[in-house]
Amino acid sequence: MPDSTPETHVIAYRAAEQLLNARDPRGALKLLDPLITAHPENTSARLLRARAFFLAAQLRSAELEFQLVLEREPDNSFAHFALARTLERAGREGEAMRHFRLAAALDPRPEYRAAARFEP
Questions:
Q1: Amino acid 6: pLDDT
Q2: Among candidate residues 56, 57, 34, 55, the one with its CA nearest the CA of residue 45
Q3: Looking at the chain, which terminus has fewer C-beta neighbours within 10 angstroms, N or C?
Q4: Could you write out the three-class secondary structure of the chain?
């Protein structure tokens, strides 16, 4: 990343968020890859990159990135939910259900509970 500073990293992260919101996951990945190379410990950037991989239908990469986030933050309900969606999309429903249930146990949001098939 040219002129790599904390400020340029924040700008790259925010720009990647905007690209992801605009449904341009490949553009977001181009911004996030150098940021993560410079700061591999940045869990927020890794979570954003995992979402970008998911939206780009790069399911194996998304799965690995979500798993890395969960190694660092095992109580991250969103990461469990997103990993479950990734596994579900890959046709691995049994593995997905485990993470849907963990997400719902950590955070009782209606969409997490519904995906986990918990009673309302």
A1: 75
A2: 34
A3: C
A4: CCCCCHHHHHHHHHHHHHHHHCCCHHHHHHHHHHHHHHCCCCHHHHHHHHHHHHHCCCHHHHHHHHHHHHHHCCCCHHHHHHHHHHHHHCCCHHHHHHHHHHHHHHCCCHHHHHHCCCCC
- Mean pLDDT, the chain, rounded, equals 94
Per-residue model confidence as pLDDT tens digits over 68-90: 999 999 999 999 999 999 999 99
Distance CA 98, CA 88 (A): 11
User: What pLDDT, on a 0 to 100 scale, did the predictor assign at position 1?
Assistant: 44
Closest CA to 56 of 18, 24, 21, 99: 24
Degrees to nearest 5, angle at CA 96 with 44 and 13: 15
Contact, 20 vs 32, CB < 8 A?
no
Q: And the tokens for 31?
A: 């911004």
